[in-house]
């Protein structure tokens, strides 16, 4: 691993401490506590995975897969299941290669999600990241529901050193997007990031609003690449999964941002989202500052989750 990557990995390992304590410690005590592989053993594992927010469906699939592997490979020792389980979780999370095409295209990124999940903060962090890559970024404050929302986004725009287009409180979000698209075209921006209001989670409102905004973009900016990111608060566990499902019914989601992964015990929700919905988690939020957004990688995630302190060597072996 390169130095930078190693740093990321360490932060991920430490950010997942509570999740690891929640899921992996429980699992390990099952592996050590059982002397044979029987129904009770599987039941306890199942319970641990569900308690760890991996979701009922993903858990069932993981356990099924484990049972098959145990049978095929004639495994007798509970401890030998550890690696098989890790493999199963990783396989369940597979959504193919995650694309970040919008970063390299002229694009419009929509950021949606319910109240307080971290949409505005994520946009600020993303703007900072793209700016560091020398991209020209414009923010659209399409959350016109509260005046404070625009001000909060303006602070992030200043922090990231990018431009923001806003509207009056109560203005039509589609008109803000219209203005922002005009600005993006005039300034030859690479990426236009649109903040939206959390109250839109009422399905009908959201659908209407998105339709209207999409029409504006289709008409005014037809060549722009489109990305729709749903932001979910990892600390809400199963609620986050339910929200993702709802948004998925209303619009074509291209990716998930899972925020507040720092210090939550519910990081297992990343497994549930990818396994149940097949939508890639593209970024995770690991804190409140501009540098606290990481690209998500399932392999690294599973490695970090099952990381053992005693395996101190940097190349943490075959997980
Ligand atoms: N610890 C932590 N806090 C975060 C993270 N992302 C966002 N927050 C905090 O979550 C709170 C809400 O963030 P906002 O970005 O305002 O959320 P929002 O979705 O825009 O909220 P509304 O506009 O009210 O719907 C703020 O206090 C953020 O600092 C994260 O990854 N980790
Ligand atoms: Mg906001």
UniProtKB/TrEMBL annotation:
<dbReference type="GO" id="GO:0006614">
    <property type="term" value="P:SRP-dependent cotranslational protein targeting to membrane"/>
</dbReference>
<dbReference type="GO" id="GO:0005047">
    <property type="term" value="F:signal recognition particle binding"/>
</dbReference>
<dbReference type="InterPro" id="IPR036225">
    <property type="entry name" value="SRP/SRP_N"/>
</dbReference>
<dbReference type="InterPro" id="IPR027417">
    <property type="entry name" value="P-loop_NTPase"/>
</dbReference>
<dbReference type="InterPro" id="IPR013822">
    <property type="entry name" value="Signal_recog_particl_SRP54_hlx"/>
</dbReference>
<dbReference type="GO" id="GO:0005886">
    <property type="term" value="C:plasma membrane"/>
</dbReference>
<keyword id="KW-0472">Membrane</keyword>
<dbReference type="GO" id="GO:0005525">
    <property type="term" value="F:GTP binding"/>
</dbReference>
<dbReference type="InterPro" id="IPR000897">
    <property type="entry name" value="SRP54_GTPase_dom"/>
</dbReference>
<feature type="domain" description="SRP54-type proteins GTP-binding">
    <location>
        <begin position="280"/>
        <end position="293"/>
    </location>
</feature>
<comment type="similarity">
    <text>Belongs to the GTP-binding SRP family. FtsY subfamily.</text>
</comment>
<dbReference type="InterPro" id="IPR003593">
    <property type="entry name" value="AAA+_ATPase"/>
</dbReference>
<dbReference type="GO" id="GO:0003924">
    <property type="term" value="F:GTPase activity"/>
</dbReference>
<feature type="binding site">
    <location>
        <begin position="113"/>
        <end position="120"/>
    </location>
    <ligand>
        <name>GTP</name>
    </ligand>
</feature>
<dbReference type="Pfam" id="PF02881">
    <property type="entry name" value="SRP54_N"/>
</dbReference>
<comment type="function">
    <text>Involved in targeting and insertion of nascent membrane proteins into the cytoplasmic membrane. Acts as a receptor for the complex formed by the signal recognition particle (SRP) and the ribosome-nascent chain (RNC).</text>
</comment>
<keyword id="KW-0342">GTP-binding</keyword>
<keyword id="KW-0675">Receptor</keyword>
<feature type="binding site">
    <location>
        <begin position="259"/>
        <end position="262"/>
    </location>
    <ligand>
        <name>GTP</name>
    </ligand>
</feature>
<keyword id="KW-0378">Hydrolase</keyword>
<comment type="subunit">
    <text>Part of the signal recognition particle protein translocation system, which is composed of SRP and FtsY.</text>
</comment>
<feature type="binding site">
    <location>
        <begin position="195"/>
        <end position="199"/>
    </location>
    <ligand>
        <name>GTP</name>
    </ligand>
</feature>
<dbReference type="GO" id="GO:0005737">
    <property type="term" value="C:cytoplasm"/>
</dbReference>
<keyword id="KW-0547">Nucleotide-binding</keyword>
<dbReference type="InterPro" id="IPR004390">
    <property type="entry name" value="SR_rcpt_FtsY"/>
</dbReference>
<dbReference type="InterPro" id="IPR042101">
    <property type="entry name" value="SRP54_N_sf"/>
</dbReference>
<keyword id="KW-0963">Cytoplasm</keyword>
<dbReference type="Pfam" id="PF00448">
    <property type="entry name" value="SRP54"/>
</dbReference>
<keyword id="KW-1003">Cell membrane</keyword>
<protein>
    <recommendedName>
        <fullName>Signal recognition particle receptor FtsY</fullName>
        <ecNumber>3.6.5.4</ecNumber>
    </recommendedName>
</protein>
């Amino acid at each position: 691993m390169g130095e930078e990557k190693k740093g990321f990995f360490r932060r991920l390992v430490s950010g997942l401490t509570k999740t690891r304590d929640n899921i992996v410690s429980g699992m390990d005590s099952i592996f050590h506590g059982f002397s044979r592989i029987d129904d009770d053993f599987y039941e306890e594992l199942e319970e641990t995975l569900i308690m760890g927010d991996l979701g009922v469906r993903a858990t069932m699939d993981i356990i099924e897969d484990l049972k098959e592997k145990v049978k095929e490979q004639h495994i007798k020792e509970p401890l030998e299941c550890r690696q098989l389980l890790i493999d199963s979780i990783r396989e369940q999370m597979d959504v193919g290669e995650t694309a970040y095409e919008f970063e390299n295209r002229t694009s419009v990124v929509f950021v949606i999600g319910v109240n307080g999940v971290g949409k505005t903060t994520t946009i600020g962090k993303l703007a900072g990241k793209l700016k560091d890559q020398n991209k020209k970024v414009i923010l659209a404050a399409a959350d016109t529901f509260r005046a404070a929302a625009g001000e909060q986004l303006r602070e992030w725009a200043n922090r990231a050193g990018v431009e923001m287009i806003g509207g009056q409180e109560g203005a039509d979000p589609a008109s803000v997007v219209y203005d922002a698209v005009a600005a993006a075209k005039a300034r030859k921006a690479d990426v236009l990031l649109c903040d939206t209001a959390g109250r839109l989670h009422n399905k009908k409102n959201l659908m209407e609003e998105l339709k209207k905004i999409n029409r504006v973009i289709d008409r005014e900016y037809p060549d722009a690449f489109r990305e729709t990111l749903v932001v979910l608060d990892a600390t809400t566990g199963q609620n986050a999964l339910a929200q993702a499902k709802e948004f998925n019914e209303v619009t074509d989601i291209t990716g998930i941002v899972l925020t507040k992964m720092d210090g939550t015990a519910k990081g297992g929700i990343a497994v549930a989202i990818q396994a149940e919905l097949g939508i890639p988690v593209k970024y995770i939020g690991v804190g409140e500052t501009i540098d606290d957004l990481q690209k998500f990688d399932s392999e690294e995630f599973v490695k970090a989750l099952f990381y053992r302190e005693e395996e101190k060597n940097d190349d943490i072996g075959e997980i």
